Amino acid sequence: MSAPPVFLHADLDAFFASVEQLDHPEYAGKPVIVGGLPADRRSVVSTASYEARVFGVRSAMPVARAVQLCPRGIFVRGRMERYHEMSAQVMAIFDEFSPEVQQLSVDEAFLDITGTERLFGPAEDTARRLKAAVRERTRLTVSIGAAANKYVAKIASGMNKPDGLTVVPPGGEEAFMLALPLAKIWGAGNKTQERLKRAGFLTTPEVHRASLGMLESIFGKAGGAFLYHAVRGQNAENFDAEQKSRSISNERTFAFDLTHRDSLETVLLELCHTVMFRLLNDGLSSRTVSVKVRYGDFATQGIQETSSSAVSSVDDLYRRALTLFNRTYDTHCGVRLLGVGVMNLTRGTGVVQGELFPQGDEKKRAVEQAILGLNKKYPKNQIKKARVTGKPSTEKM
User: Fold this and answer.
1) Per-residue pLDDT tens listing for the chain (397 residues)
2) 257/347 same-domain check
3) Which of 117, 141, 169 is the last residue of a domain?
4) In 3-state terms, what secondary structure has residue 25?
């Protein structure tokens, strides 16, 4: 008889801001807001430290609004290469605890720890050992949820942030969900919450008592099915769409529907960073780029395109992804999920010498590959790609 499934969802706490506080001890305990400087008119918040969140600052908010809410905050531009360096260190630790680590983004991953009890003990012990290893070796904190399926583990990881640990015992998934307020149902954003209230659903048990047919008649087939499975503690989101042998993808679901164009483009760029660095890390290449957009009503659209040349750099991937996004984006709808992927993977760089005007992207890819290699060889060093910021750099190397 096979062991029952056990999953951990590990989520680094305020990751970008935590790395900035780590690299700049003078920022410790202060509100740090990563995304742009107050003078950057179009920038948006990528991550806010927990000290900044007290003032109402949140991800995807325009930096101008964050300045109004937290005028004494420390505003910095993001350093994606540095964040990927730290992410790689953390993911390497995850690999020590599970043979199956599914990285969802630069700061979160699922670990399948089914059958590892003889090595690390029960789920709670494994999670505590994992948290201790991350803290000791990176000085970062990670919040972990443990459950028999990924959806519940994902919710559990956010229950006691920062540095939290929540274990849902096998068979307790439905009771766990029923004890949550509706606002805690992950994936049901602001627009869905409003529709629930208008339909007379004020608590999770009330949604649980509704039939699948009733929910589908109110929220549509996809939305109704999502809610029906979610309140029962069943897998309500497909976290297994990526098949690593054929694709690498990264997507983000938002706590509230995004309508701000700059916010969406910022997220798109961050997704491209993660996909490109994973592509480089695995020594793979791709000519096919895909973009997925899910709207507030759960309607999902996907678009992909294959080019004659392989993706050569983060900038190249972002250009292609942005073009696809512009083709499919409905400006009248809020976005609850955005994803970027590369498909039909092949071994090697896929960059063909002699292509028309390839030099710029080849150089960018070479720099990105060099950064990745140096980060692996010297994980304790802060090696990153230089970037003009409009003011003298004070970052330590």
Assistant:
1) 567 899 999 999 999 999 999 999 999 999 999 998 998 877 889 999 999 999 999 988 889 999 999 999 999 999 988 998 999 999 999 999 998 998 888 899 999 999 998 889 999 999 999 999 999 999 999 999 999 999 999 999 999 999 999 999 999 999 999 999 999 998 888 788 889 999 999 999 999 999 999 999 999 998 999 999 999 999 888 777 544 447 888 888 887 788 888 889 988 998 998 899 888 877 888 999 999 999 888 888 999 999 999 999 889 999 999 999 999 998 888 898 899 999 988 886 554 333 333 345 555 555 555 555 555 554 444 443 333 333 333 333 2
2) yes
3) 169
4) helix
- Token duo for residue 146: 């443990």
385 located within any domain:
no
Q: How many domains does the chain have?
A: 3
CATH number, residue 89:
3.30.70.270
Q: What is the per-residue DSSP string for 320-384?
A: HHHHHHHHH--TTS-EEEEEEEEES-EES--PPTT-SS-HHHHHHHHHHHHHHHHHHH-TTS---
Could you identify the residue written with the tokens 């709670």? Answer: 124
Same domain, 6 and 149: yes
**Residue 312 falls within a domain, yes or no?**
yes
Q: Which of 100, 92, 52 lies closest to 76, judged by CA? A: 52
Q: Which residues are catalytic?
A: 108
In a shared domain, residues 259 and 290: yes
Q: Is the pTM of this model over 0.85?
A: no
Q: Is residue 86 part of a domain?
A: yes
